[in-house]
Design goal:
Blueprint (H helix, E strand, L loop, with lengths): L11 H13 L15 E4 L2 E5 L12 H14 L14 H14 L3 E5 L2 H12 L5 E5 L4 H10 L2 E5 L4 H10 L7 E6 L11 H11 L2 E5 L14 H4 L8 E5 L9 E5 L1 H10 L1 H5 L5 H16 L2 H20 L15 E7 L1 H13 L2 E2 L1 E3 L9 E6 L6 H17 L5
Parallel strand pairs: 2-11, 4-5, 4-6, 6-7, 7-8
Antiparallel strand pairs: 1-2, 3-9, 8-9, 10-13, 12-13
Bound molecules: pyridoxal-5'-phosphate.
Pyridoxal-5'-phosphate binds next to α4.
C-alpha cells in the first residue's frame, strides 16, 4: 500500500474547524450500512433496529422495484448519456413524469436528480431579483439555497405563524415584484405538518405563487400518499408541488408538479435540469414501479400510521420530550426525542447504537442551538416486537444517562 500524500497548509482552516467540532462533541463519523436498508440491518458490523432511515414504506427492498431496476438495466443500460435537454431524455423518463402527473392530478410533472435540485432549481428559476420569497423559518436547506440563487428578497416568517406570514405579505403588497409563499408539507426535523390550507388562503388573498415541498409527505400523507395538498384538499390551489423520490418512494430523485407551462418553463430554465445528467433508466423504472405500489398496496401506509401511533405513545409514556413544549409537536412518522444539549444528544445516539438501536443525533446547524434531538422515523415494516425492543432499549439508556428520571 502507498501512503496518501501529506496535507498542504492551504486547507488548514478546515482541520481547525473539525477540531472545534470534536471539542464541542458534535463531530461524527459516517455509519456504514453493510446490507440493505431494512428495519433491522447492519451498520459498522453491528445488527441494530433501524429508526433512522426515510424508507417509510419499505420500498428500498421491495421485490417489484428491484425487478424493475434490473429489467430496465438489461433493456436500456446503466446510464442516460447526457442531460435531458441534449440527448438524455429516454422514453422511460417521460413515462415516469406522466405517471406522477396522473397520480397527483396535475397537468404536468418534471423529474429532477434529487429533491434538493428540484427545490433549488425551481425556486431559483421562477423568481428574479425584484421578487419576494415569504418562507417558513424551518423550511428545508434546498429552499433556502434556491432562494439565495434566485437573488429575490427573502422574508422569513416564524414557524407556522400565519399572522406573521400575513404581516410579511402585507409589507410587500404594493411592491411590483412577484411573491412566492412557500412551506414544507412535513417539516423534516420536527415532524409537524405545514398549514397548507391556511397558506393557500393567504396566497389567494395576496395573489402570491403558492409552493409546497412535500419531501416527507410524499407516500405518507393524503390518499395513497399523494401528499399534503391532497391531505388538506387543496387541489388546484398550489402552483408548485415538489416531491421526492428518495424517501418513501425508495429510490432517488425529486419532482415538480404543476401546470404544463410551469413544467415547460423548467425544462428551459431550471439549471440542474439543463446542466446535470438525467437518471439512469433503472431509477426511472424503479420509481414507476413504486407509484404502482402506492396505488395497489395502500395497507403499507395504514401500517406506517399504526406503527407511528404506537411508537409515539411508547416514547411519550416512557417520559421523553417528543416535542410540543417550546418545539413543534410532531404529527407524522418523524418523532424527535428532544434533549437540547448537542453533546448529550450525540452521546445518547452513540450509546443507543451500542445497545442495538440506530437513531441519529441531530445538532446545530441542522437544528437551532439548544434544540438538539434524537430523530426517530417509523416505517411500515417494523414489527411490534422490534418496536417494543427499541422502546425498552431507549428507555433503559435514557435512565442510565439520567435523561429519564
Ligand atoms: C430530504 C428533503 C429534501 C431533499 O430531497 P432529496 O431527494 O433527498 O434530495 C427536500 N426537502 C425536504 C423538506 C426534505 O426533507
Amino acid at each position: 500500500m502507498t501512503t496518501a500524500v501529506a496535507p498542504r497548509k492551504q486547507l488548514a482552516h478546515l482541520s481547525s474547524q473539525l477540531e472545534e467540532l470534536k471539542q464541542k462533541g458534535t463531530y461524527f463519523k459516517l455509519r456504514v450500512l453493510e446490507d440493505q436498508q431494512e428495519p433491522v440491518c447492519t451498520y459498522d458490523g453491528k445488527r441494530v433496529i433501524n429508526l433512522a432511515s426515510n424508507n417509510y414504506l419499505g420500498l428500498t427492498a421491495h421485490p417489484k422495484l428491484r425487478e424493475a431496476a434490473i429489467d430496465a438495466t438489461r433493456k436500456y443500460g446503466v446510464g442516460s448519456g447526457a442531460v435531458r435537454t441534449i440527448a438524455g431524455t429516454m422514453r422511460i423518463h417521460m413515462e415516469l413524469e406522466e405517471k406522477i402527473a396522473r397520480f397527483k392530478n396535475v397537468e404536468a410533472c418534471v423529474v429532477f436528480q434529487s429533491g434538493f435540485t428540484a427545490n433549488a432549481g425551481t425556486v431559483s428559476s421562477i423568481l428574479g431579483k425584484d421578487d419576494f420569497i415569504i418562507s417558513d423559518e424551518l423550511n428545508h436547506a434546498s429552499i433556502i439555497d434556491g432562494a439565495r440563487l434566485s437573488r429575490a428578497k427573502v422574508k422569513v416568517f416564524r414557524h407556522r405563524d400565519m399572522a406573521h406570514a400575513e404581516e410579511l405579505l402585507r409589507e410587500v403588497e404594493n411592491e411590483p415584484g412577484r411573491k412566492l409563499l412557500i412551506t414544507d408539507g412535513v417539516f423534516s426535523m420536527d415532524g409537524d405538518i405545514g398549514p397548507v390550507d391556511k397558506l393557500c388562503d393567504l396566497a389567494d388573498k395576496y395573489g402570491a405563487i403558492m409552493m409546497v415541498d412535500d419531501a416527507h409527505a410524499s407516500g405518507v400523507l393524503g390518499r395513497n400518499g399523494r401528499g399534503s395538498v391532497d391531505h388538506f384538499h387543496c387541489h388546484g390551489r398550489v402552483d408548485v408541488q415538489v416531491g421526492t423520490l428518495s424517501k418513501a418512494i425508495g429510490s432517488l430523485g425529486g419532482y415538480v408538479c404543476g401546470s404544463r407551462d410551469l413544467i415547460d418553463y423548467l425544462y428551459h430554465r431550471a439549471r440542474p435540469f439543463l446542466f446535470s445528467t438525467s437518471h439512469p433508466p433503472s431509477v426511472a423504472a424503479t420509481c414507476i414501479a413504486a407509484f404502482d405500489i402506492l396505488e395497489n398496496e395502500p395497507e403499507r401506509i395504514e401500517h406506517l400510521w399504526d406503527n407511528t401511533r404506537y411508537f409515539k405513545q411508547g416514547l411519550a409514556s416512557a417520559g421523553f420530550n417528543i416535542g410540543g413544549v417550546n418545539t413543534p409537536a410532531s404529527e407524522t412518522p418523524i418523532t424527535p426525542i428532544i434533549l437540547g444539549d448537542g453533546r448529550a444528544t450525540m452521546e445518547f445516539s452513540r450509546k443507543l447504537f451500542d445497545a442495538g438501536v440506530m437513531a441519529t443525533g441531530i445538532a446545530f446547524p441542522t437544528v437551532p442551538e439548544g434544540k438538539a434531538r434524537i430523530r426517530t422515523i417509523m416505517t411500515s415494516e417494523h414489527t411490534r416486537a422490534q418496536l417494543d425492543q427499541a422502546l425498552e432499549t431507549i428507555s433503559r439508556v435514557g435512565r442510565q444517562m439520567t435523561i429519564l428520571t
